[in-house]
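User: Some background: our group keeps a shared notebook of sequences we're curious about, and every so often someone picks one and asks for a predicted structure to add to the entry. Today it's my turn. The entry only has the sequence so far, pasted here. Could you supply the structure so I can complete it?
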Amino acid sequence: MVAFRTIGRVAELVDAQDSGSCEVTLVRVQVPPRPPMTYRAYRPDRRFRRRRWLLIIVTLVAVVASIAFLVTRQTEQRGTVEFFAVAHEATEMHATAAVELESAIAAIGVTQRQDLIARFQRISRLAADAHALLDVEVPLAVAASYGSLSTASVSWLSGVAEVERVVLALMNGGAADVATSDLSAAFDELRAGDSAYELFLGSLTEPVEDVDTSSFPPISFVNSSPSDPLLFDALNIVIRVSVSYELAPHHNVGVTGQLEPLPVSDRGGTPLVPFFETFGVIAVITNTGNEVAVDVAVVLEILNVDTNEVQTLNQVVAEIAGGSASSVSFADLSVVPGDLYQVKLVVTIAEDNDPEDNTWTMAFIRNEDA
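Assistant: Of course. Here's the predicted structure to add to the notebook entry:
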């Protein structure tokens, strides 16, 4: 029988027989050291590696999606606030235009032609500027509100422009029946804008973060309950414009003159101009019509009565607004001391309804002594 004892890693070989005692030979055997235990490195299989990468990717996607959601939410909120700020400014301008339109229509037959034209031009500019503010990109959350307000703004802009065109055409002698039809259509366009604006206000029932939706003004371009029930009646407006003398176009210019230097005495009833180094005439042209006078020709004639010699000078004024005046100067004119002169100023325009005031004349003598 062979027995091994591992103590000290030394084994003894024992040979024993089954019976009796016998001579025993002991042999020492050196057992080599036990080889070190080795373990194979742990390596996850391919399926587990795929799952781990998939988990990492899903986590990254979730993080990116969360960031994108927060950024999108902040962007939409900022876009919403910016839209309502612009919308509030635009509606305030439209509200002003609506009030001024009612005032301008009420003034027909009372105000002057140029004043009424200026009023309608201002109303159209207000509507155009207000509509231009709404040319913005808006987030989906306020698309319905934007659509209603934009529709209202387009209708208002179109309506006021048409009212201005029709009234001006009528003041210039346009056909009354055509004007009545066109004006009715313009008021219908404005009413459509009023209805669209009501839809806009109705879309603001839900609170909007950081926005005071209750601050939007009421707007009605065609007041359903005006102080005058016929105020927005197209036929009534056509009649009022047609019978107003002040609203019809009038073209008329007049002229007066002034000598430089001014006469200080007279000789035999004729104004005596003091002797001075220079002599001139100032022409003051007044546009008493209600239309702009353009290319106003001014002619100065100085007749020496004693010698029958005539000096003629010309100037042109580019334009003079209705109800305004302008002046031109003819300087360094040659006049002989002691002679009698007749000075005449004449102004002309292409169309003048009252040419009686187009001429100014004056006789004078230039003094011989300084």
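Suggested note for the entry: The CA atoms of residues 275 and 370 lie 5 Å apart. The two ends are 170 Å apart (CA to CA).
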